[in-house]
Design brief:
six-stranded mixed beta sheet; 7 helices; 6 strands; alpha/beta; 2 domains; single chain; 216 residues; Ribosomal Protein L4, Chain: A
Length: 216
C-alpha cells in the first residue's frame, strides 16, 4: 500500500496518509484514456449545426421553364441543389455525438489516470484548502505555499465548495472539482493533482476494489 505525505496548507509535513492500491496503483492503460477522453469531449459537443435541404428551402414550387423545346437543360425546381440559393446536399443536421462506454472501463481509466499522477510524483494530499473569503489572492498564496504557484493544478475536494470555486475561476490554470465530478480528462490535462484529506476516503469509496474490472 502506497504512503504519501500529508501536507499543511502553508507547506510542511503534517503526517502521512495511506492510499488504496486498487485506486492509486492500478495499471496505466493509455488506450483507456483515449476512449474515455473521446467520450467526454463528444458528450460536450452541442450538435446544433444545421442546413436546409431542398425540402426546407422556400419557393420553387413550379418548373422554371417547360420540359422541352427551350434548348436548355430540363429543370424541375429553382430550389434544386445546383441552383444558387437551392438546398444543400448531404449537409449537417442536428444530432447527438454522445456515445457510451461500459462503466467498468470508465472506472479503470480514472484509476489509471490517478495512478499515473502518483507515479509521476504529481499528486499532493493537503490537510485543507478552506479559504476565509472567495478571493483569488488567497488561493494564489495557498498554492505558492504548496510550491504550485505557476503550475496547472486540479484541486479535488470532498464536496462542492463555492468559496474555493469562486477564488479559482479567475485562474486559467486552476480548476476545482468535487470527488463526484472527478474525471479522466481534467486529471490528465493538468500538470498537478491536489487532493484534500477529507476527499481521499471518498475517492477510495468511489473507485476502490477493482477485482471485477477490465484487464484488457
Amino acid at each position: 500500500m502506497a504512503t504519501l505525505d500529508l501536507v499543511r496548507p502553508g507547506g510542511g509535513r503534517a503526517g502521512s496518509v495511506e492510499l488504496d492500491p486498487s485506486v492509486f496503483e492500478a495499471q496505466v492503460k493509455p488506450h483507456l484514456f483515449h476512449a474515455e477522453v473521446r467520450r467526454q469531449l463528444a458528450r460536450r459537443r452541442a450538435g446544433t449545426h444545421s442546413t436546409k435541404n431542398r425540402a426546407f428551402v422556400s419557393g420553387g414550387g413550379i418548373k422554371p421553364w417547360r420540359q422541352k423545346g427551350t434548348g436548355r437543360a430540363r429543370q424541375g425546381s429553382i430550389r434544386a441543389p445546383q441552383w444558387s440559393g437551392g438546398g444543400v446536399v448531404f449537409g449537417p443536421v442536428p444530432r447527438s455525438y454522445e456515445h457510451d462506454l461500459p462503466k467498468k472501463v470508465r472506472r479503470a481509466a480514472l484509476r489509471g489516470a490517478l495512478s499515473l499522477r502518483l507515479r509521476e510524483g504529481a499528486l499532493t494530499v493537503v490537510e485543507s484548502l478552506a479559504l476565509e473569503a472567495p478571493r483569488t489572492k488567497l488561493l494564489v498564496e495557498a498554492l505558492r505555499g504548496l510550491g504550485l504557484g505557476e503550475a496547472s493544478v486540479l484541486l479535488v475536494v470532498a464536496v462542492a465548495e463555492p468559496t474555493l470555486a469562486l477564488a479559482a475561476r479567475n485562474l486559467p490554470r486552476v480548476d476545482v472539482l468535487p470527488v463526484d465530478g472527478l474525471n479522466v480528462y481534467d486529471v490528465l490535462r493538468h500538470e498537478r493533482l491536489v487532493v484534500t484529506a477529507d476527499a481521499l476516503p471518498r475517492i477510495h469509496e468511489r473507485l476502490g476494489d477493482a477485482r471485477k474490472e477490465v484487464s484488457a
